User: What shape does this take?
Amino acid sequence: MILESFPVGQLGCNCSIIGCAETGEAAVIDPGGDAEKIISFAKEKNLTIKYLLHTHAHFDHIMGSRAVKEATGAKIYINKGDQWLYDNLQKQVQMFGFKATDPLPVDDYLEHEDHIKIGNIKASVIHTPGHTPGSTCFCVQEKDSILFSGDTLFQRSIGRTDLWGGSFEEIIKSISERLMTLDDSTRVVPGHGADTSIWTERKSNPFLN
Assistant: This one.
């Protein structure tokens, strides 16, 4: 598996590119900006981007989606619970004084326990409402499991719940019932900031203890 994660956009969203070394198929998780950087990495590794997977539809996680899709033809995926946020991209960026082009239509919707085939790699879909109604995590189980947690779970923290559609009760339930059941060794790549692990968060996250 080819994996690269790097911050993109004005708010430093962690964008991750997952590529199958055997088939060359790839998915981009949270193309929140810097589309040229994303496309350039894929070309460098001889990857064909098939899917644009979004952990949620806040502007800093979707602003690069249009440009990447236009360049690659990749399909845009979100959870249906965040369609209203996706459709209100312009209102979102105006609140922060940014500018954005309108997003392209969503190609398909992600549901809890769906599976996405990226060449020979399988990514499991975990619906984790709380930060937003449609917040979603992706778990790839290769030699070691990797969880792409978006803005649901951070290193010793959790996502904000004071934004549109947020719920503290829901995010705690999502993390406790759907993320803390994963293996302790699971690496966690959050939507912002440094990586962590399920074991670390189980033992030291102040919101979960």
User: Anything to note?
Assistant: Helices lie at 35-44, 59-62, 65-72, 83-87, 89-96, 168-179, 198-204. The longest helix spans residues 168-179.
